[in-house]
C-alpha cells in the first residue's frame, strides 16, 4: 500500500477483523493489508467498515467492508461466507477485537444485568461464534491463526468487572483453542493492551480532558499506548515469524503490569 510493505509478510492470507471500525481494529485492518493480507473489515457499524475498506483499496490493498454483528449467529456465518467469496479463499487469520465501549462503568453492586450480558455476549460468545465459523476451513487447510484482543483487565483489576471477567474468559479460550487445534496447524494467541488512545475513551475524555495525562504516570514507558502498538503485535502473531508461538499472551502495556513504579519510588523514598 502506497509503496509501503510492512515488516511482517502476510501475503496470501485472508484476515477478518471484528470491530474494525473502531480505534484498534481500524489500524489493525490497515496494517494487515499493508502486510499483504486480503482483509475483511467487519463491524456492527456498516458504514465505518465499508468506508475503511474503500480507503484500504484506494491505497492499493485488498479489502471488503461488511456489517458483521458478533452477537448474531447468522450475521457471523454470513460475514465469513461473504468474506471468502469476495476475497477468494476462506478466512485464515481471525482477529477477535469487538467490544461495546463503556467508558464510565458503574460500580459492581450497581451494574445492571444487561451490562454483564452485553460484555459476555460481545466479548466471549462473539469470539466463540467467530472462532467456530473460522475453524472448519482452517482445519481443512491445516493452517490458521486466531488472535484475541484481551486487556490488562483480564489479569488485575483496573475497574469494570464485567469487561474484566469477559477478557479473562477469552484468555482461557485462547489456551483451549491453542491446545485443541495445534495438531491442525492452527495457532491461537492473545494480545493484552494497557490504555490505548481510541474512540472507546471519547466519553471519558469529554468529561475529563486530562484523563490520558493522568494515566500516563502509571506507565513505566511514560506514555499511554497508540492503536499501532497493538496492531503491530497482532500482525506479528498472525505472521509466520510467530510460527512456534501459540497459547501465549503478548503483553502490550508500556510496562504497566510489570510492577508499580509509584510504589517502588515511595519504597525508595524518592
Ligand atoms: N482502548 C483501550 O484502552 C484498550 C485497552 C485494552 C484493550 N483494548 C481492547 O482493544 C480492542 C479494541 O478496542 P477499541 O479501544 O479500539 O474500541 P472501540 O470502541 O474504538 O472499537 C470497538 C468496535 O467494536 C464495534 N462493535 C461493537 N459491538 C459490536 C458487535 N456486536 N459486533 C461487531 N462489532 C461491534 C464498535 O462498533 C467499534 O467500532 C477491544 O478488544 C478492547 O478490549 C482496548
Provide a quick synopsis of the model.
The chain contains nine helices and seven strands.
Mean pLDDT rating: 96
Strand segment tally: 7
Described by the principal axes of the CA atoms, the overall outline is: globular
Helix content: 40-55%
- Rg for CA atoms: 18 Å
CATH superfamily: NAD(P)-binding Rossmann-like Domain
Widest sheet: strand ordering: 3-2-1-4-5-6-7
Structural class: alpha/beta
What's the architecture in CATH terms?
3-Layer(aba) Sandwich
The figure for the number of domains is 1
Q: Total helix count?
A: 9
Instruction: Give, in order, the helices and strands.
Output: EHEHEHEHEHEHHHEH
Strand content: 5-15%
Poorly predicted tracts of residues: none
Distance between the first and last residues' Cα: 49 Å
* CATH domain fold name: Rossmann fold
InterPro entries: NAD(P)-bd_dom_sf, Sc_DH/Rdtase_CS, SDR_fam
Keywords: Oxidoreductase
GO molecular function, one term: oxidoreductase activity
Protein name: SDR family oxidoreductase
Q: What would your notes on this structure say?
A:
- This protein has 270 residues and is an alpha/beta fold.
- It has a single domain, classed as 3-Layer(aba) Sandwich (Rossmann fold).
- The chain has nine helices and seven strands.
- The protein has helices at 23-34, 46-58, 73-87, 113-141, 161-181, 202-207, 211-216, 227-238, 261-268, and strands at residues 14-17, 38-43, 62-67, 93-96, 144-149, 186-193, 249-252.
- The protein has a seven-stranded parallel β-sheet with strand order 3-2-1-4-5-6-7, with helices on both faces.
- Helix 1 (23-34) links the parallel strand 1 (14-17) and strand 2.
- Helix 1 (23-34) crosses helix 8 (227-238) and helix 4 packs parallel to helix 5.
- The chain starts with 13 loop residues before the first strand and ends with a helix.
- The chain binds nicotinamide-adenine-dinucleotide (NAD).
